[in-house]
Amino acid sequence: WELARTMKRDMDANWTAGWRRRIRTRCKGKSGDGSVSEWTRRVAKKYAGDGKTTHVVGLGQGKLPAVIVQSIAEETDGNVVVIPTSARAAAEAALHGMRIGNLVDHPTPDVSFAIVDEIDQVEGSLPAICGRFDGEIHVDILGEKNVATASKKHVVLVEAGNVVEKLGGSVPVVIPLQNWEDVAEELDDLFLGIAEIRRHPMRGTSDPRGGPNPYFNDAGQTVVDVLFEQHINCTPFELAEMIEGVPGVLGHGLLLDCIDTAYAVQGDKAKELVPYLKNVDKSVRKNIMGDA
Fold first, then answer.
1. pTM above 0.90, yes or no
2. What is the largest CA-CA distance in the chain?
3. How many angstroms separate the CA atoms of 55 and 106, rounded?
4. 25-41 confidence digits (pLDDT tens)
5. Cα–Cα distance between 185 and 190 in angstroms, integer?
6. I need a surface site. Which of 86, 162, 191, 267 has the fewest CB within 10 A?
7. Helix (H) / strand (E) containing 185
């Protein structure tokens, strides 16, 4: 709570009166398709395995599965088990004759793939945000994070324009459908004056209550965005602790200490990003970053 109050004091007071009426473009930041699809093929082939031993692959949502599965199928003889986090990923794997698995039978996938909405290239461990709603596809945030953290390697792609020096925009938070308003109100109180809470709709754009058809899933969960007007004025790890401290929160879209390689794609080129502070004790991390 003290950190939240400090964040509030540090914000520029000039924008607080009018910020609720303005939604920045970066807050909508879902990655595009063309260049990412081409680089997805290249990355998938790089991590496809040798085809001689069973290769277990975790697969995210969106338009990623079709490209990944096809590319891996071209490189192997089908000796692949796919752990999907969406029906589309499962369907693509089945179409190419790949076995469908889960984390119970395959607790440590060899590699997992995902597209992230935004990634911090400065902090050191490549913290990122996933799960922002693009108006069409709802990401299984908890499922994707479970697969990502369990994998031996987690590889992500991101549009170069969404590689930032400090995370900002919106952070999706998964909460129970039952009594969701109580949890949302707690989040609103925590970030009062520095962020707005908006519920995901089934389709279209969001509003504080999710519009006429608010989103919920079969697991009895819904998702709200903690929508910041500017960059987040604390570390991603501190923000995660704050969100997780709210009673009822089930998870969030902050990916921390789980990305092994990121490819920042722009046109027909991509820059490879690797973490240098992954899984470092937070006190050591603070000292290192303080000296940077």
1. no
2. 61
3. 10
4. 333 344 444 556 777 78
5. 9
6. 267
7. helix 180-190
